[in-house]
Amino acid sequence: MGRKHDLEPLALQAWEQEIGADLALALTPSKRAAHPQRVHTRADLPEGAFAALEEALGPLRESDLIVIPAGARLVDPQERRYAYVPTQVLAACERGAALWVERSDTPGVCALIPAGRLAAVDEEHILLAARLSLLGATARLSVHYNAVGRPLLQEPLKRLRGAAASEPRPTPRTSTDVTLLPVKWRSALASALLHPDDPVVAVFGRVPPEEFGGRRRECLLALTPWELIVIRDPEVVSAAAAYGLDTLYLPRGHMARASLSTGELRLLVNDAEIPIKLGDELAADISDRLGPYLPLPAAAEGGR
Fold first, then answer.
1. pLDDT tops 60 at residue 95
2. What domain range is 54 assigned to?
3. 17-27: buried (b, 16+ CB within 10 Å) or exposed (e) per residue?
4. What pTM does this model have?
5. Same structural domain, 150 and 191
């Protein structure tokens, strides 16, 4: 039985400390999460970070590393709760991902997920707030950062995703004409693909309002030889959600089981259970068009 994962991030991580609004403003005048920074030489890293990450993952290139400087982030906008986040160094490469944190007591690697145990990569951004979560069967790695720096993370993340996907899997013979998708979703899919020339079968639709506080969301599921990619409007009841996306990457090579029930797709990936809310109409489209290429039970496929 797989371990169920809630894709929403923990409100406060073990190395974060809750602080008041005044201190948060002093630490981060813009009230935005820190900008990720590219690593050019090892001198750009906090002392001890490179050695610890190489011990966890093996040899690393500077291009595998991203520094997220210390700062404050908003935890609860209604109660104006903030957290102080120490400097973090994210490493992502063909062997896996690890997060080094400059904790005041014991700086070191706080999370490690080998590429072969990666269950999902979840990227969410709304306006300038961005979050990356990497999920394994027994581990989770999450960082918050300023979305302006999101392109810096894509190169190391694609190396990690490619290694996790391992070998290509069959796809339907007829690909989707992605030029027929709305511009927002066509652009999002193009930037999400592991390889730009990969064949894609996409299912696009709306999620019923009763699922998300009366606000309709759109969702795109794209099957490639390597991954199932789910791109959706963020699950946030806020006008700002119109200016964001939540993108979920699931390696097909590690999908052991899938089920469709009451408008929800549940996937067992590397022993982690991933739930995806779709609504009945979109779930039916998924069963019809992608069912033979997902590890759905025979009864579900036969009901198409």
1. yes
2. 3-165
3. eebeeeebeeb
4. 0.90
5. no
